[in-house]
């Protein structure tokens, strides 16, 4: 049995044989099928990349049908239980779990890159008091490139790594300052004696105390959420990171673009949307009517459905357990009952079952963040902090990929044919586009 695909073009009768490698054919192979010498060749049309692999990647494996997620081969369940965010970030970037000394050096380096230039404070202060923290986050990450112009040299491996460390280390500082700005509170400097998540919580919540100590169970819950959100292969924002990175721009600019992609309600903005939805529903009694509106196509059930997971999202399962641990400390989130009822009804309903719509990672993460005292507008930012490791891993893999070229999809042009310019005085309303 040959690992090939034979394609016959019935317009011309021409047959080509395309090699199948790793379960895929090269789309450019179709170009051999032309109508005449002028013809560019056959293309495949795949809006939203539903069935197009754009890269070969060794970072994250997902089997959506079986609900499997692995970073570098390690099951997400084991990492969530036993790893830390920084160890997981190392794994994503370097491909292997660190040895004890490698981990120590890595943690030390990240910890000592957490400070940002004082001018960043002034940049933050320039925002309105009610600026969305994700807008501030995106802008401040992009601004970092102006402080590190050498980051433009993306062909230098050592330089790339230095910028990656800076980014992983500095994003919590920018995120926390965006929050402090919105509250009119003084910005808190990083505390090098604390761990990654402990330091982040300190920069968020420290007031007059000399040192802020987060409740260990809550700090660990945030750590688990960070591990779960660290990477998710070629999603919208990772694709943005790779696509922007393929122009060889510096990683700060590319990451700002990736963060912008994450901001959207269909991606990282979903957990924020879930909480707004739960608050809008307001009471368990209103759940059935809300579900009916979803089924009528009026609304989407936020936190439900996934492009890849069509069985269950393994992250949602871990998050539900984490939520229980958090609520034990903070008390039950009043919106939890609405969420549970929504999940119960949806999982039994034919509409959701037939479309394979299950709770995704965002369905419960917002409830946890809220119980940790983190405001809703910060949710996409809380997603962006750990995803920085994933974006960087994707970017680094792309940069050294000998097959990487500047991303440039083709299009099927369906617009007007050539026509002559019409002077303004001769134009009528009928000429205006619909
Ligand atoms: N509520 C109600 N119906 C839905 C939902 C939903 N959340 N998601 C999909 N559907 C329906 C959709 O209307 C369509 O029905 P029909 O075939 O009758 O037209 C069918 O399910 C397939 O939907 P689709 O839009 O083709 O699916 P997709 O793979 O393009 O979309 C998704 C994936 C995540 C964008 C979508 O499920 C969605 O909008 N979910 C809500 C937003 C959300 O929770 N996003 C977070 C995703 S996980 C975190 C992350 O990766 O960022």
Explain how this protein is built:
- It is a single chain.
- By secondary structure, the chain is mainly alpha-helical.
- The protein folds into two domains: 4-45, no CATH class; 85-407, Citrate Synthase, domain 1 (Orthogonal Bundle).
- 49% of the residues lie in helices and 5% in strands.
- The chain has helices spanning 76-82, 85-94, 100-111, 119-125, 133-147, 157-183, 196-205, 216-228, 236-245, 251-263, 270-281, 287-295, 314-330, 336-348, 350-354, 362-371, 379-399, and strands at 4-9, 14-19, 60-63, 68-71, 74-75.
- A hairpin with a 4-residue loop joins strand 3 and strand 4.
- Helix 6 runs antiparallel to helix 17 (379-399), helix 8 packs antiparallel against helix 13 and helix 13 (314-330) runs parallel beside helix 16.
- The protein is globular and about 75 Å long.
The portion of residues assigned to helices is 40-55%
Rg calculated over all Cα atoms: 24 Å
How many discrete domains? 2
The small-molecule ligands in this entry are:
carboxymethyl coenzyme *A
Structural class: mainly alpha
What fraction of the residues are assigned to beta strands by DSSP? Answer: 5-15%
Assign the CATH superfamily of the largest domain. Answer: Citrate Synthase, domain 1
Oligomeric state of this protein: single chain
Shape: globular
CATH class of the largest domain: Mainly Alpha
Main sheet? 3 strands, antiparallel
Secondary-structure element order, as H and E?
EEEEEHHHHHHHHHHHHHHHHH
Distance between the termini: 53 Å
CATH domain fold name of the largest domain: Citrate Synthase, domain 1
Indicate the CATH architecture of the largest domain.
Orthogonal Bundle
Number of helices: 17
Q: Indicate the low-confidence ranges by residue numbers.
A: none
Q: Give the tally of β-strands.
A: 5
- Trace the largest sheet across and list its strands: 3-4-5
């Amino acid at each position: 049995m040959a690992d090939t695909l034979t394609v016959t073009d019935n317009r011309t009768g021409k047959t080509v044989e395309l090699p199948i490698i790793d379960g895929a054919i090269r789309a450019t192979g179709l170009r051999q099928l032309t109508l005449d010498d002028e013809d560019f060749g056959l293309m495949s049309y795949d809006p939203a990349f539903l069935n197009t692999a754009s890269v070969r990647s060794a970072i994250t494996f997902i089997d959506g049908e079986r609900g499997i997620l692995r970073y570098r081969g390690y099951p997400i369940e084991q990492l969530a239980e036993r790893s830390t965010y920084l160890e997981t970030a190392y794994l994503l970037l370097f491909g292997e779990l660190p040895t004890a000394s490698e981990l120590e050096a890595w943690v030390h380096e990240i910890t000592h890159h957490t400070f940002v230039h004082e001018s960043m404070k002034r940049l933050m202060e320039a925002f309105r008091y009610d600026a969305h923290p994700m807008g501030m986050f995106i802008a401040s990450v992009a601004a970092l490139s102006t402080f590190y112009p050498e980051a433009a040299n993306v062909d230098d491996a050592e330089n790339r790594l230095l910028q990656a460390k800076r980014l992983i280390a500095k994003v919590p500082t920018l995120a926390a300052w965006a929050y402090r700005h919105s509250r009119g509170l003084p910005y808190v400097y990083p505390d090098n004696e604390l761990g990654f998540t402990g330091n982040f919580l300190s920069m968020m919540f420290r007031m007059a105390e000399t040192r802020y100590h987060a409740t260990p169970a809550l700090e660990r819950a945030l750590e688990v959420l960070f591990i779960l959100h660290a990477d998710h292969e070629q999603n919208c924002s990772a694709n943005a990171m790779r696509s922007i990175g393929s122009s060889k721009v510096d990683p700060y600019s590319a990451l700002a673009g990736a963060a912008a992609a994450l901001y959207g309600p269909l991606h990282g903005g979903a957990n924020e949307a879930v909480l707004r939805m739960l608050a809008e529903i307001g009471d368990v009694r209103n759940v059935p009517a809300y579900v009916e509106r979803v089924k009528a196509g009026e609304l989407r059930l936020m936190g439900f459905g996934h492009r890849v997971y069509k069985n269950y999202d393994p992250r949602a399962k871990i998050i539900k357990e984490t939520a229980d641990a958090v609520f034990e400390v903070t008390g039950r989130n009043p919106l939890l009952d609405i969420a549970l009822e929504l999940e119960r009804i949806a999982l039994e309903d034919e509409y959701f079952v037939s479309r394979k719509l299950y709770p995704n990672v965002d369905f419960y993460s917002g409830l946890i963040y809220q119980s940790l005292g983190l405001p809703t507008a910060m949710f996409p930012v809380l997603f962006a902090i750990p995803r920085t490791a994933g974006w960087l891993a994707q970017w680094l893999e792309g940069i050294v990929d000998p097959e990487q070229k500047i991303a440039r999809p083709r299009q099927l042009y369906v617009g007007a044919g050539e026509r002559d310019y019409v002077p303004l005085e001769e134009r009528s309303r009928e000429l205006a586009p619909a």
